[in-house]
Structures are given as structure tokens and as C-alpha cells.
Design brief:
about 250 residues, alpha/beta, binds nicotinamide-adenine-dinucleotide
Length: about 250
């Protein structure tokens, strides 16, 4: 029970890595606010957590709307009394396309969720953590936050950008007990691979030193440990959860 008594918020938690983060937080004893643009999906995840003995509630949150972040944090404070942990995880990709072929809409779409959405989130979460006397802010970056990925310029720019945000927050609020970390998964089995051509899918395991893709729970459990007091001297870092992908 690494997170007993803590109150945690997760964005994009109706599916994939967000769901796994919410489940790991709950297994470690946190009270979890499960949020997603898909309200029904978020409610189903919160119900599943509650059914298995955890504490969770849900809310609809479109991370591209700054006011919704403000309202959500107010709701968390009135429901649970405080906010200790915020996993800014919601993110999207678009079909890969070389840079000169990208439309302005492609750029705006990815930027609005993967970069703006994280900024709007931390802006609302930091004051609540100051009121709580400290906290942990995390974001789901990616291997694309450390290197370029063909056809993924908006995504790579955003995933590099959120690492800069965490470094900055670490310096601005470290002495107030607020830590900030970026987590970098490689290819995790979230169903995203189902839409890839067979030949690309076949290459994915071999891109990792461990010879396999990651499991969502491996990312969730990393978030849980990083959010706990066991990681109390970690801040401003990029933490890879990539099975050795970047070790080449
Ligand atoms: N799956 C991977 O292999 C992988 C690897 C590296 C990084 N990531 C990152 O992990 C995060 C989660 O990805 P995933 O693979 O679980 O994706 P996913 O598509 O399985 O889940 C994303 C969730 O975010 C929600 N969402 C989308 N737009 C939103 C918005 N505006 N506001 C709130 N919620 C929104 C969706 O409804 C969905 O439930 C993303 O930031 C992604 O870039 C994933």
C-alpha cells in the first residue's frame, strides 16, 4: 500500500495506460478520481475499481478545456479534501504523415490534447497541491519525447514539450514539496497495435531489449511507485518504461 491515504487524479483513464494507472493507484490504496472525455468509460473503470475493493469515483474531463480542469480540482477538494497526485495522461496520435504533408488541423489536434491539455491541467493542480502542502505531478510522455519518430512531428514535439514542463515545475515548486516527473513508455499493449499493418506489428517486440511489448500494468505500477514517498528524491526527470528501447 504505497499510496494509502493519498488522493489521485488520472486523465484519459477510460482506457489503455490511464486505466492501468488508475488501477495501480487504487491497488496501492489511493482514492482515485478517474476522468476521461468518455464519461461512460470513466464511470465503468471507477465501478470496476470499487468492485475489486478500491476507492474510486469518476468525472467527465475534456483536457483541452481549461475551465473543466479548474472545476474538477474544486470537486476533488470538496469530495476528498485534498489533491496529492495528478497523472496527466490523456493523449492522442494521428496517422503518420511526413511533416510537409501535415495540415494545420493535424498539428492543432495533437497539440491541443498532448501539450495544451497538460498545461491546463498542471495550472489547475499546482495550487491545490500547495494547499495540501505538497504533491506529485506526472505526465505520460513517450520514447517520442526523446527521439524523432517518422511521420509523428506534432506528437514528438508535444512529448518533448511535456518533459520541459515537468522540469520547469520541478524547479518552480520543489521547495514547496511538489515533485514533477515525465514517464516515457515505448510500445505498450493497449490495442493501438491492432490497427497497424501486420508487418509493422511483427517488428514491435524486437524494438525492445526485452524482446516484447510492455503491459499496461507495468506502466501503471511505475506511476504508482513514482507517486509514492519511496521516490521522494526524484523530480524533474524523464523516467523511461521502455523495455530497453532507448538503450540501443
Ligand atoms: N500505448 C502506448 O504504447 C504508448 C506509448 C507511449 C506513450 N503513450 C501515451 O500514453 C497516453 C495514453 O495512451 P493510450 O495508449 O492509453 O491511449 P488510448 O487511446 O488507449 O487511451 C487514451 C484515452 O484518452 C482519452 N482522451 C482522448 N482525448 C481526450 C481529451 N481531450 N480529454 C480527456 N481524455 C481524452 C480517450 O477517450 C481514451 O480513453 C497518451 O498520452 C499516449 O501518448 C502511449
Amino acid at each position: 500500500m504505497l499510496l494509502k491515504g493519498k488522493v489521485a487524479l488520472v486523465t484519459g483513464a477510460a482506457a489503455g495506460l490511464g486505466r492501468a494507472i488508475a488501477e495501480s493507484y487504487a491497488r496501492e490504496g489511493a482514492s482515485v478520481m478517474v476522468t476521461d472525455i468518455n464519461a461512460e468509460g470513466a464511470a465503468a473503470v471507477a465501478a470496476a475499481i470499487t468492485e475489486s475493493g478500491g476507492t474510486a469515483t469518476s468525472a467527465r474531463l475534456d483536457t483541452t478545456d481549461p475551465q473543466q480542469h479548474m472545476d474538477l480540482v474544486a470537486r476533488i477538494e470538496s469530495t476528498f479534501g485534498r489533491l496529492d497526485i495528478a497523472a496527466n495522461n490523456a493523449g492522442i496520435t494521428i496517422p503518420a504523415r511526413p511533416t510537409a504533408d501535415l495540415s494545420l488541423e493535424d498539428w492543432e489536434r495533437v497539440r491541443s490534447v498532448d501539450l495544451d491539455g497538460v498545461f491546463y491541467g498542471v495550472r489547475a493542480q499546482i495550487p491545490a497541491m500547495q494547499r495540501a502542502g505538497g504533491g506529485v505531478i506526472l505526465t505520460t510522455s513517450s520514447i517520442a519525447g526523446q527521439r524523432g519518430l517518422w511521420g509523428m512531428l506534432p506528437y514528438s514535439a508535444a512529448k518533448h514539450g511535456v518533459i520541459g514542463m515537468m522540469k520547469t515545475i520541478a524547479w518552480e515548486y520543489g521547495t514547496e514539496g511538489i515533485r514533477a516527473l515525465a514517464v516515457g513508455p515505448a510500445f505498450i499493449k493497449t490495442g493501438l497495435e491492432d490497427n497497424m499493418p501486420e508487418d509493422v506489428r511483427a517488428q514491435l517486440p524486437g524494438m525492445h531489449a526485452l524482446g516484447r511489448m510492455g503491459e499496461p500494468r507495468e506502466v501503471g505500477d511505475t506511476f504508482a511507485w513514482l507517486s509514492s514517498d519511496q521516490a521522494s528524491f526524484l523530480t524533474g526527470s524523464y523516467i523511461p518504461v521502455d523495455g530497453g528501447y532507448l538503450a540501443r
